[in-house]
Each structure stands twice: as C-alpha cells, then as structure tokens.
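Note to self: keep these together.
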Amino acid sequence: MELKVLNISGKETGNAIKLSDKVFKVKPNDHAIYLDVKRIQAASHTGNHKAKERGEITGSTRKIKKQKGTGTARAGSIKNPLFRSGGRVFGPRVRDYDITLTSKAKQLAKKSALSYKVKGNALMVVDSLTMKATKTKDYIKMTEALKVNDGKSLFVVAESSENLFLSGRNIQGTSVVRAAELNTLDIMNAKHVVFEEGAIKKVEENLK
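Structure:
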C-alpha cells in the first residue's frame, strides 16, 4: 500500500511511501485495543490514596467503659471506627494499578489502531516536520494547510523536535510524540495522525 508524501504546506512532493501491510493493513482486533488502552490508562493511575485504619489512628487503647451494664454497645477503644475520629473500615490503601500485557498483544493493538486510521483515510505522511523556530502561529498554519485542525491531531516524528513540540504544546487538541513513544491510546484518541516520513520506518521496525 502506498501513500503520497506531502510537505508541511499540504502540497504533494511527488514522492510516495510504501506502507507495510503487516503493520498498517492488518485485520483490527478490537479486544486487543481495549486491553492496551486499559493498560495505558491504569498505568497513569498513581494509586497513592490512603485512609488510616483502626491500627494507625493516634489514641489510647484503654477500654473506655465497662463491658456490661451501660445499656449501649460494647466498645474496646476510642479508635473504634464507629466513633468520631476513629479508624476507617476497609479504607483505600496504596496500591499498584498496573496491568500486565504481553508484547505481542501490545503490538497487535498498535497495528490494529494504525490500520483503522489508514482504512478511514485519517493517516497522512509528511516529508519533514522540523520547524526553524518556536512559533505557535507557524504550527497553526501547518495544521490548517494539512487540514487537520477540525479535530484532535497527532504528529509523529522520528526524533525529538523541540521547536515543533514547544510550538504546539499550548494548543488544545494537538500533540507531538516520537515514534518510539507512540501508543494505542494516542492513536485512537486522534482524529488525524500525521507521520514524518522517517517515523514510518521506525514504527515498522518496532512492530515487525
């Protein structure tokens, strides 16, 4: 499968790039996409919530009243969860939310997401995404020229491009990632995915 290569002005360069069918034209697996997106979102959950339980509350452990004859329920400590300022019963604890997924499943999910974008004509290739200076105006002009400003856009570069990243970081609905950092969630969230020509080769090498 071939795609025409454009420049950042949205014009055709006269060149075309051949996409690997093993990466960009696979039969999409929705369940693999679901599992990988769930894994990525779970990894962003810090899991540092914590509530003090009965054994962690500061207070005396003496028996606050006699066992019988008071007409009320038994109470062994002021730290009883039923009392004000007492410990919490089964409160949240610090935990790890990470989900384990095999490398093959993660690769299949990414290939499926990319295949969906190709099938929906939502993936394009640009010869170079480098910018000479950090200018938000130039970044906006680029999105308008490429006609990707009508929804969320994802720009995938081969190597870090500081000027491109800084120019677009304050613009809502667009992001820049390196090919090595590309994940299923980013692809599925974007309405348009714009690849730098060199980034295509890197993604194919990682997913073959």
